[in-house]
TrEMBL record:
Compositionally biased intervals (Basic and acidic residues): 1-11
Keyword vocabulary terms for this entry: Glycosidase, Hydrolase
GO (cellular component) term, any one: beta-galactosidase complex
Binding site for substrate: 133, 171, 340
The species this protein was found in: Bifidobacterium asteroides
Name used for this protein in its record: Beta-galactosidase
Residue ranges of domain Glycoside hydrolase family 42 N-terminal in the record: 36-407
Lineage of producing organism: Bacteria, Bacillati, Actinomycetota, Actinomycetes, Bifidobacteriales
Length: 716
């Protein structure tokens, strides 16, 4: 790994200056619109038709060359840019900009045949063969040499081409090589540990290596968390967590090397790579990655079901936080079904346009799809695209063209460059916490940090509030209310920030699984949550797993109609100043010796207060806790103008606002399965999609009936 260490976790790296792609004429332009374009999959006579259809649909940018290494370098050191130059010329003449890929995501077969030592290795020693994507080790010096040579040639070739306005470095890093157990990785991990800990004694302390005779004598003995027989679940948790951190850092180091090579040759072109932020995965530590890009880009694929819109908004909220409030790029999403799930649902009844506008509402100034033309062959042949197999005379292409017109109108209105107005409730997320909960030695392995964040996000929407998702290392002190959803790892530095926040008047929510361990997965002693005990005013002595009915367990009653799940924390001590808001009751509470003991409490600390939840809750129960148990004044201020969900807290709606010099842009979404009538809006209508204006209006603005998957956008 590079000696220019981007990975000193003791001091966060500064953010790179924000740079957004400009149009070839140098203007900032409006909302970029387009997608991945793979002309190398099609005969050249199709390209002219493609460009004409792009113009008709309002496409303004495409990404080129993501998986084109084998075409660009058909053999070692032999280059063929003729076909790509012709595509770029066609696009440039049509006024369509190019986000050019570094083309390093997947290497050609000749490289793998010549250098099989670049292939990754799985935990059980199995070699990952080529044939999919990213069959390479980020720590391989051989692969890095070839990849950087390609970056250098690409940079030199396109350095003066005005149609190329940005660099798309790599592609979805970690998709197929998030963890590598090769000898290259071992050597790099040992160096990473040496830089992180300084001495082997400090590493032994951090990893708790006196357990099971794991004490190391030098850094050359540092192992990888490889397959260890039937006891894989019991591999040192601190070692496994540090290895996940290392893997994220190793890929980031590789990205930075590519980025720096391209930037040296094309300093005027901004660079990024596409993150994969969604509530069902946490491949890399994107908070750290976000400091290394010129602008944040993300790929998001919808979660089918009643929570479709909610999940999109929750994921995008974290992306917007990574972007520091700057406009960001939706690099990929789908026009309809994907092809890599067990059940690949289609988008219907306006979801294509609704989803795109939801991303815009959440701060995206670029809306791109995978991909332009649906592949006729290969592993993603049945993944939807802007032009489906049926061709341009299709419902999908018609919707794509409609969306292009909508985005063009929003661009003319001045929306581009505005920022999403924040809520006053923050839900904290941390990649380390998510990774640590993959460890199967916790009291209950069903708890998932990301899913707890999402549960809180949905519950607050259902209760009439909108929250922002913020990284733990972000600037969340400005929020009125901060929630820790299963934030199981918390070091002294972050605990000190929370303590200062509450002392100055902040309101903090600590749930049943927060503050249990430090960042090395050492359990805090003296009662859970040890590091936050003075804030909660309550210490617990045992985590009692509740299990499910199939396991002979089940939920525990907290109040009528409100049940706790996952586990309960049995109190050890309670300060006199703690006010009990709800106690355990019912037969199950007696069986567990928890009857009458505090389940939900509140404690004053300094000028603020701390709400403590001693058990987990489903979304439905959490809504009831918010509405029936939490004191009304605890969330006061979290539903102020522009910050609350919908009209008067109507949980059927989501109301989002972007603001800037041109005004405030209001987005009203129907998040339910029924029509919402008589919705009061503010300002002039810019977009009315699956909605209709009601008669009347008045000084407060116009009123609309918003249908299922409908949206109204206004400017005030």
């Amino acid at each position: 790994m590079s000696k220019t260490d981007h990975h000193d976790r003791r001091q966060p790296q500064p953010y790179r200056p924000y740079r957004w792609p400009k149009e070839p004429n140098g203007h900032s332009g409006g909302i970029w619109f387009g997608g991945d374009y793979n002309p190398d999959q099609w005969p050249e006579q199709v390209w002219t038709e493609d460009v004409a259809l792009m113009k008709r649909a309002g496409v303004t940018m495409v990404t080129l060359g993501i998986f084109s290494w084998a075409r660009l370098e058909p053999s070692d050191g032999v280059w063929d840019f003729g076909w790509l130059d012709r595509v770029v010329t066609l696009l440039g003449e049509a006024g369509i900009a190019v986000d050019m890929a570094s083309a390093t995501a997947t290497a050609p077969y000749w490289l793998y045949q010549a250098h099989p030592e670049v292939l990754p290795v799985e935990a059980d020693g199995t070699l990952v063969h080529p044939g999919a994507r990213q069959s390479w080790r980020p720590t391989s010096p051989v692969f890095r040499r070839y990849a950087l040579r390609l970056c250098r040639v690409m940079g030199e070739h396109f350095r003066d081409n005005p149609t190329v306005v940005a660099w798309h470095v790599g592609n979805e890093y970690g998709w197929n090589n998030a963890a590598d157990y090769s000898q290259d990785a071992l050597k790099a991990f040992q160096g990473w540990c040496r830089r992180r800990y300084g001495s082997i004694e400090e590493l032994n302390r951090a990893w708790g290596n006196d357990f099971w005779s794991q004490r190391l004598q030098n850094f050359d003995q540092v192992p990888l968390p490889e397959h260890a027989g039937v006891s894989d679940a019991f591999i040192n948790p601190a070692l496994r967590l540090d290895f996940r951190r290392f893997c994220s850092d190793a890929l980031m180091d590789f990205f930075c090397a590519e980025r720096d090579q391209l930037q040296e040759l094309t300093p005027d072109k901004p660079l990024t790579t596409n993150f994969m932020v969604s509530t069902d995965q946490c491949v890399l530590d994107y908070e750290r990655w976000s400091r290394q890009v010129d602008f944040v880009a993300n790929d998001h694929y919808f979660a089918h079901g009643p929570g479709h819109l909610d999940e999109l908004l929750c994921s995008d909220s974290l992306v917007d936080a990574y972007a520091q409030g700057h406009p960001w790029c939706l690099m990929e999403h789908s026009t309809s079904a994907v092809n890599w799930r067990n059940f690949n649902a289609s988008k219907r009844q306006g979801e294509l346009i609704r989803d795109a506008l939801a991303h815009v509402a959440m701060g995206a100034d670029a809306i791109n799809f995978f991909q332009w033309r649906q592949s006729a062959f290969g592993a993603e042949a049945f993944h939807s695209a802007m032009i489906p197999h049926a061709g341009p005379d299709s419902a999908i292409y018609a919707q794509v063209a409609d969306l292009g017109g909508i985005l063009r109108g929003l661009s003319r209105s001045g929306l581009a460059g505005t920022q999403l107005e924040p809520s006053s409730i923050a839900l904290l997320f941390d990649a380390d916490c998510q990774w640590s909960m993959a460890d199967s030695t916790l009291p209950d392995c069903s708890v998932d940090h990301w899913q707890q964040v999402y549960t809180w996000y949905q519950a607050l929407l259902d209760a009439g509030y909108r929250a922002d998702v913020m990284p733990l290392r972000g600037q969340w002190e400005r929020y009125d209310v901060v929630v820790l959803p299963a934030l199981i790892l918390l070091d002294q530095e972050q605990a000190g920030r929370l303590r200062d926040y509450v002392s100055r008047g902040g309101r903090l929510v600590v749930d049943f699984a927060s503050g249990i361990m430090d960042d090395h997965m050492h359990v805090g002693l003296g009662g859970y949550p040890a590091v936050l005990r003075d804030l909660t005013g309550i210490a617990s002595q045992e985590m009692i797993a509740l299990g499910t009915s199939d396991q002979g367990g089940g939920s525990i009653l907290v109040s009528e109609g409100i049940e706790g799940n996952i586990w309960v924390n049995e109190p050890l001590s309670i300060e006199d100043s703690v006010r009990v808001l709800a106690r355990y009751q019912g037969r199950r509470s007696y069986d567990l010796d928890m009857a009458g003991k505090p389940a939900v409490t509140i404690h004053g600390y300094g000028q603020g207060s701390v709400l403590y939840l001693g058990t987990g809750f489903t979304k439905e129960s959490l809504v009831s806790v918010i509405n029936r148990i939490v004191p009304p004044d605890f969330l006061t201020g979290a539903a102020g103008a522009g910050l609350h969900n919908g009209r008067d807290g109507d949980p059927r709606l989501v109301h989002l606002i972007r603001s800037g010099p041109q005004g405030r842009y209001h987005f009203y979404f129907n998040r339910g399965s029924t029509v919402v009538r008589d919705v009061s809006t503010m300002g002039e209508a810019l977009v009315v999609q699956r909605a209709a204006r009601c008669s009347g209006g008045g000084l407060s603005g116009n009123r609309y009936t918003i249908g299922v998957h409908g949206v109204v956008v206004t400017r005030q």
